[in-house]
Amino acid sequence: MLYSAIVFLEVVAAAGRKSQEADRRTDTMSAVVNDYGSASYWDERYSSSALQEATKSSDGTYDWYNSYDNLRFALRRIIAPDDTGDSNDGNNENPEHKEILIVGCGNSALGCDMYDDGFQNITNIDISEVVINQMTDKYSSKEHMEYTVMDARNMEYIPDECFDVIVDKALFDALLCGENNLDSVQKMLREVYRCLKPGGHYIMISHASSKNRMHYLTTSPLQWDVEVIEVKKPVITGSNLKTNDNDKKSDFHYIYSCRK
Ligand SMILES: C[S@@+](CC[C@H](N)C(=O)[O-])C[C@H]1O[C@@H](n2cnc3c(N)ncnc32)[C@H](O)[C@@H]1O
Q1: From residue 35, how far is each of 46, 55, 155, 252 by CA, in Å?
Q2: What is the pTM of this model?
Q3: Which domains does the chain have, with CATH numbers?
Q4: Which is higher by pLDDT, 72 or 55?
């Protein structure tokens, strides 16, 4: 098993206020008595108009941690390493053919943004029927993008080894704050491993550093190579968005790239 750490100092100048709110919320996740692993908690949350209004952006989406804009460079490097991201450079390995599963999609814009960036076979799942109905209505025009109610801990309708990439932004962290947390994260990781093609990537985006995540990712029977990419968080100073230069652990989000 290979563990490597790359410090990826991306300047995330385009991030918005909603990402900051997500960070704050997640940093206090473990102190809050919410069951982030239960469907009823999330159904209620996505049904609550007050909460929706407080957290979502003008387009009705809400992204935990970070937006695709800020993660794009790192994600493309994992998913399409030979592709520079410039569709006109003649070096495109057709990333749109990759089969991508987003687990715990919520009402994040990630699926839509990836779709618009060329990854056109995207399946989004979430345990909340409420948010899946909302997202199905919202993105009905995206022909090859699906939204399905499914528990990531039991993806029995998904055959073995059928996805090239499985993206998890804040789901692992949420399950770790729920009831039966250790059982939940183990079940999810086993299911993710089963559904990944050999050579495929599980991409976990977390607020926690490798000290608090690596042991979950390297427990038997998981046999994958794990690379950790640090993405610097944006900070808001007054009305300006600036990159924080102090490099404390809390200044980063972490992308765990697990290659089966
Ligand atoms: C912290 S939110 C993250 C949402 C989104 N990925 C983002 O980055 O903004 C966690 C999401 O996971 C969903 N969820 C919780 N438990 C789940 C499970 N067992 N299977 C699938 N989705 C789940 C919740 O409904 C919620 O939408």
Answers
A1: 14, 19, 21, 25
A2: 0.84
A3: 2-259 (3.40.50.150)
A4: 72
